[in-house]
Task: structure prediction
Amino acid sequence: MNTSTIEEARRFLAENPDIEQVQVLLTDNNGVLRGKSLRVHELDTLYRNGRPLPSSIVALTIDGDDAENTGLLWEVGDMDCVAFPVPGTLVRCPWLATPSAQVLIAMDEVTGAPAVDADPRQVARRVIARLLADGYTPVVAVELEFYLLDANAAAPTPAQPRGPQRHVYSIDEVEAHAPFFDELYAACRVQGLPAETAISEFGTGQMEITLTHRTDALRALDEAVMYRRLVKGVAAKHGLKACFMAKPFANLPGSGTHLHMSLNGARGANVFADEDLHGSPLLKQAIGGMATTAADAMALFAPHANSYRRFSANSYAPLAPTWGVNNRTVSLRIPTGAAPTRHIEHRICGADANPYLAAAAMLAGAHYGIVHAMDPGRPVEGDGYAASEAPPLPQHWPEAVGRFADSSFLKEYLGERFVEIYAAVKRTEYARFFSEVTAQDYAWYLHTV
Result:
């Protein structure tokens, strides 16, 4: 896997001689960036020899604790596994006061064992490689919704420069946060991230910026990870907190991750392209596979307890693996546009999903559908919440994890060891989560039972 070169690091330092520290960042199963802060003189060694990290780092719980039964902790003595820099991700962090850089790292295929089986970037890479081997180049773009919160408020509170009213698609709402957006776009230019349209979403303080489609799907996912960190960093500098929870407020819409994908064939043309808005036969087969496998992958699309609070009727979060044309009430939407742009928008994931793992499951489903020439059934017209004939997606966290753990499809595409490790992490998390006695317990039961 180690295709990074020391020349990349030396060129970067020559162009940025003021850099004092470099943060090396590995994405764990929950999408949390973990790693170390290196001094500049250590960069040469990082690119030459990689960086040893404990095997358990890819299998930590959301709160950073060890998860039992992963096979990556006591069973292997929490051994060191070597990670190397991801090419093209060594960039400045312009929001930090100290001149700083960051670089993404991933476990090496050989020296990163056994943690490499659970490295989310490597899981995505393996699925993409399978598509490439069959002559399909996945084209991917990621849209992330998030809330801007007042970082100084005692409780989570949406930033409300225009008052508490909802301002969906409001230019005034975007302009009210102009200093934040100006610096965010500037930071994206520094890091080479293809940030495009900014919109005010349905919730008060809810925002979205789209990222450009990439024919290098792994690069698109790297950029999504980098972008989420950048948004948080720039927001903090402006006295704000960027919140990527799936459902931070009971009375406001949840936040989603929308994954856009198409496939280019051997000659570089979009194999989903068709003058018919429903797309080519291959597009329909991909949708058939994505719909058939969506329930198995729900634990990746909705990875946390809070994720399932987002799913309700008339919420723009789908409840069943439906599809349709120009319809935001379905899971798998074909947007309008010219024939060469025909693609699928996958709308199931929350903003809390790990982009690498969510995309891996999506692309695996598309490949599965094409290989088996799957029929997606009839497209939904009108209200997808009322018209669906498809069985519902799992609506409860333990149910989703159980289905994930038993999925032969996911074991084939994502790897049997990955499925075992991820399921163990999630089972540890939900056992701890449901063992907590919360304020809601006292409000409902303390004086009534």
Observations:
- Residues 167 and 173 are 6 Å apart (CA to CA).
- The two ends are 59 Å apart (CA to CA).
- The domain at 6-111 is CATH 3.10.20.70 (Ubiquitin-like (UB roll)).
- The chain has two domains: 6-111, 127-396.
